[in-house]
Amino acid sequence: MAGLKTTCSRVVSDLHETGEMIAFKHTVFALPFAVVSLITAASPGWPEPRVWLWVGVAMVAARTAAMAFNRLADHAIDSENPRTADRALPAGRLSRQFAWAITGLAAAIFLLAAAQLNRLCLVLAPPTLAVLLGYSYAKRFTTGSHLWLGLALGIAPVGAWIAVTGSLTWPPVVLAAAVCLWVAGFDVIYSLQDDTFDREHGLRSLPARFGRGRALHLARLFHVLAFVGFAVFAVAAGGGFLRLAGVAAAGLLLAVQHRMVSPDDLGSVDAAFFTANGMLAVLMCVLFLFAKISS
Fold it and tell me: Under CATH, what is the fold of the domain 25-294?
């Protein structure tokens, strides 16, 4: 009995550590925009239940593979960075073998989900994985790593659109570009915490290269362009008060997070990163859903 309790306790602990490793809560950034794309692509109807199911599976699997691989790629870096040294891999609470198994399993599930949707989704699945996994090394050779991360999340609404229609047109590309710029902007803000470490270890982020002040200016530019992209997509999706209200809410939350952070005050970076941006994605999704229901 004691052995069973120990085993169960270990399983629960490993599941908790895995959830922390893959930052499952950060799915809130990409999943809402996949939903927005899904319901817009299916207009005037709704996506079939199987599409909802397999898009959801694909989203979770893709993010799990990407985050687990990222932790593997950054294992040594995380060990040296005081901010990340207590993560599961550098702290030894999970093994590299376990992280590799999670990465492989999640990648296989992602490919399976793509195959269940349509032929184009399956054809695009391997290059999508290449973008997602490749991001883990971007910071080693390009200051454009923030935009690479944005692209990795921006793929979600494009994939969702193709899952419904089996083809691609310009509205999801506009939404993907807006998501890319939005993510790049808040990733610049988040990376302010590591500018000194990145510079000392040859890692290429915008704050490390240009300093905090200029990096924040670039983040603001990214977010202004993202706001424009959200507005263009909302109009393409049918416009209306609710969709435009979602865009307005996004603009307000973008402005708020820039008010929360300055080059000399990083105390609110976590709130700007997760709270403001999580609210942005969820609010836009909810208002687009209400617009769809009321149309």
Answer: Tetracycline Repressor; domain 2 (1.10.357)
